[in-house]
Amino acid sequence: MSSLLLNKTGLGVRRGLMKAIHKHLEDAKAFSTQPAMDFFEVAPENWIQWGGAHRRAFDELTEAHPFVSHGLSLSLGGPDPLRYDFIKEVKQFLDEKRMLIYSEHLSYSSDGGQMYDLMPMPLTYAMVDYVADRIQQVQDILGRRIAVENVSYYATPAQEMSEFDFFLSVVKKADCDILLDVNNVYVNSINHQYDAKSFIAGLPSERIAYMHIAGHYEESETLIVDTHGAAVIPKVWDLLKCAYLHHGALGTLLERDFNYPDFAELASELQQIRLTQNQMIGNENHAIIS
């Protein structure tokens, strides 16, 4: 397992949350209490060219707290050529802001232009070779390994292998790391009828850089939509415990992209992540003592 963010709790930075985040950190400092989060995550695309008051507030955060970056538009599985100039801009951003980890989605988001959505790739052996080669090219330019995220999807253009076999084959062939999105595993397990716990248990612990957890929308008993716009449900919390059981209390980040509640509700979810991590560590210590 990765020790970089071990037993750490994170929150995705969104402009709609910036004021609340700063106030929470100021209050924690004033009252000498522990903040609800240990690290933050941002999409580099949202900040590379951004200036003004929002950028200054962002820069203050990056100077004082650990950060990771989660990309949106590399389009690793897309038909368009990789945008080398953009990748170099990302490298500069990662280096200047001392980003601990850079991750991207195992999907594509461009086809003759940016689509602003994450599209599913064919689960084929040829696509394994194609996307693994592109990941290696990105890693060569960045001078670092990246982590790829298992994404939610609702259809497959072509399928020669399972989602698990495809995902693991890409990771091994590209020699990259994993961003394990626990909610995405749950969503896909319902939509495509597979065992979520087996998917998680089968992943190589040493490749997992950190984890995501989020809420979703239940369209029906057999269709769930990954939205990041609601609270995490009990079944996903249980799946997070399963992930910790197999891979350790790795750093886990809460995603919330819209429909923001009072920040106290987000802090409560962050606290639940921390309590679950501490419970896992307590169980490990008890096993050692026993």
| CATH homologous superfamily caption | Divalent-metal-dependent TIM barrel enzymes
SSE pattern, N- to C-terminal: EHEHEHEEEHEHEHHEEEHEH
* CATH topological fold name: TIM Barrel
Count of helices?
Answer: 9
Q: Can you summarize the main beta sheet?
A: 8 strands, parallel, barrel
Shape-level CATH architecture: Alpha-Beta Barrel
Specify Rg, calculated over alpha carbons: 19 Å
Helices and strands: which structural class?
alpha/beta
Count of individual beta strands? 12
Largest sheet, spatial ordering of strands: 1-2-3-4-7-8-9-12
Structure description:
This protein has 290 residues and is of the alpha/beta class. The protein has a single domain, classed as TIM Barrel (Alpha-Beta Barrel), CATH 3.20.20.150. The chain is 43% helix and 18% strand. It is built from nine helices and twelve strands. It has helices at 18-30, 52-64, 84-96, 125-142, 163-174, 182-191, 196-201, 234-247, 263-289; strands at 9-12, 39-42, 67-70, 102-105, 108-110, 114-119, 147-149, 177-181, 208-213, 216-220, 223-226, 252-254. The strands form three sheets. An eight-stranded parallel barrel has the order 1-2-3-4-7-8-9-12. Strands 5-6 form a two-stranded antiparallel sheet. Strand 5 (108-110) and strand 6 (114-119) form a beta hairpin. Helix 8 runs parallel beside helix 9 (263-289). The longest helix is centred in the C-terminal third of the chain and has 27 residues, at 263-289. The radius of gyration is 19 Å and the shape is globular. The two termini are 24 Å apart. The model is unreliable at 286-290 (pLDDT under 50).
